[in-house]
């Protein structure tokens, strides 16, 4: 079984293939410093090619999912310090853009890892937190959870995925624009109503149990079927229906030839559970 060691993340993988990733900077309310988002990118990039991982539960420690970007680091770290303070605006801007792209890539690794990610949100989920959960597959919240697209309150437009992914998740343009322009607090009940989260639970322990249950169900299925489904859902979201269908036909020309289909069909006819080898 693979082992993952990080500074800001606790990672474990069950024998069934459910990886658990806990963001762990509770003293700073899990604010995202460079180390945290870099490790998220590294971890989920590794999951993509780790056959031991079939599904993922992402959570965060303490009373809040995340207070957003680490504002203390933002005032003193790479965001505030150009590598050459005397360089002109184009030269400074070039490297600033690369920084933002690197940050985007790290969060997009969650979407691109092919294994479904179930995220549990308790307490606040601010700024980069909304970017992150928008890149996940299934969102579960506690009753005390709330969401804020907080970027306008720190003088910027959200730039790590919220403005691209949230409208496609929620499908209510007026609501999305309202919460992105006002940075208002969206309580869990409202998040459930608009479809940002799929269920709301009384406590973090209840939400974690529900998430592990969903991830366990996914992990027991054919990994070929599961990675194909995630990959094709994401592709189809970003393309026309015709393009999605064409690509799906091509993809499944390979995937239909796994042993998993025969195993699944025979097990289903015999009313017996099936076991599928790892990818
Ligand atoms: C290239 C750019 C990429 C990404 C950009 C993302 C943008 C964003 O994420 S925008 C959102 C930024 N975050 C915020 O504006 C939230 C700031 N924090 C707060 O408003 C409050 O802390 C709170 C979240 C409402 C919680 O309040 P409270 O319950 O009263 O706790 P505190 O005592 O304030 O905080 C406890 C402890 O955590 C530290 N902390 C809180 N937030 C951050 C943060 N964002 N960055 C760094 N540290 C944070 C706070 O300083 C306290 O630590 P002490 O050591 O006790 O001071």
UniProtKB/TrEMBL annotation:
GO CC field: mitochondrion; peroxisome
Superkingdom of this protein's organism: Eukaryota
SUPFAM superfamilies in UniProt: ClpP/crotonase
MF term (GO), any: delta(3,5)-delta(2,4)-dienoyl-CoA isomerase activity
Alphabetized UniProt keyword annotations: Acetylation, Fatty acid metabolism, Isomerase, Lipid metabolism, Peroxisome
Protein's organism: Coemansia spiralis
PANTHER family per record: DELTA(3,5)-DELTA(2,4)-DIENOYL-COA ISOMERASE, MITOCHONDRIAL (PTHR43149:SF1), ENOYL-COA HYDRATASE (PTHR43149)
Subcellular location: Peroxisome
Record bears the keyword Transport: no
Protein name as it appears in the record: Uncharacterized protein
Pathway(s) of this molecule: Lipid metabolism; fatty acid beta-oxidation
Family: Belongs to the enoyl-CoA hydratase/isomerase family.
GO biological process terms, semicolon-separated: fatty acid metabolic process
């Amino acid at each position: 079984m693979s082992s993952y060691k990080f500074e800001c993340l606790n990672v474990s993988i069950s024998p069934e293939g459910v990886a658990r990733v806990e963001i762990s900077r509770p003293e700073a309310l899990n604010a995202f410093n460079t180390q945290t988002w870099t490790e998220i990118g590294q971890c989920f990039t590794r999951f993509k090619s780790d056959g031991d991982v079939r599904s993922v539960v992402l959570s965060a420690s303490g009373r809040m999912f995340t207070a957003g970007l680490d504002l203390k680091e933002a005032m003193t770290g790479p965001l505030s310090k150009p590598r050459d303070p005397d360089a002109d605006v184009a030269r400074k801007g070039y490297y600033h853009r690369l920084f933002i792209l690197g940050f985007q890539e790290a969060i997009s690794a969650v979407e691109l890892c092919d294994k479904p990610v179930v995220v549990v949100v308790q307490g606040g989920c601010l700024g980069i937190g909304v970017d992150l959960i928008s890149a996940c597959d299934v969102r579960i919240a506690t009753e005390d959870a709330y969401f804020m697209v907080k970027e306008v309150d720190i003088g910027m437009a959200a730039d790590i995925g919220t403005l691209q992914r949230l409208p496609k998740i929620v499908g209510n343009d007026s609501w999305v624009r309202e919460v992105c322009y006002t940075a208002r607090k969206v309580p869990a009940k409202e998040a459930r109503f608009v479809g940002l989260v799929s269920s709301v639970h009384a406590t973090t322990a209840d939400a974690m149990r529900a998430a592990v249950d969903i991830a366990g169900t996914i992990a027991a299925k054919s990994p070929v079927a599961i990675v194909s489904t995630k990959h094709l859902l994401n592709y189809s979201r970003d393309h026309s229906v015709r393009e999605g269908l064409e690509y799906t036909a091509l993809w499944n020309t390979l995937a239909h030839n796994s042993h998993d289909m025969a195993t699944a069909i025979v097990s289903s006819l015999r009313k017996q559970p099936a076991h599928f080898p790892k990818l």
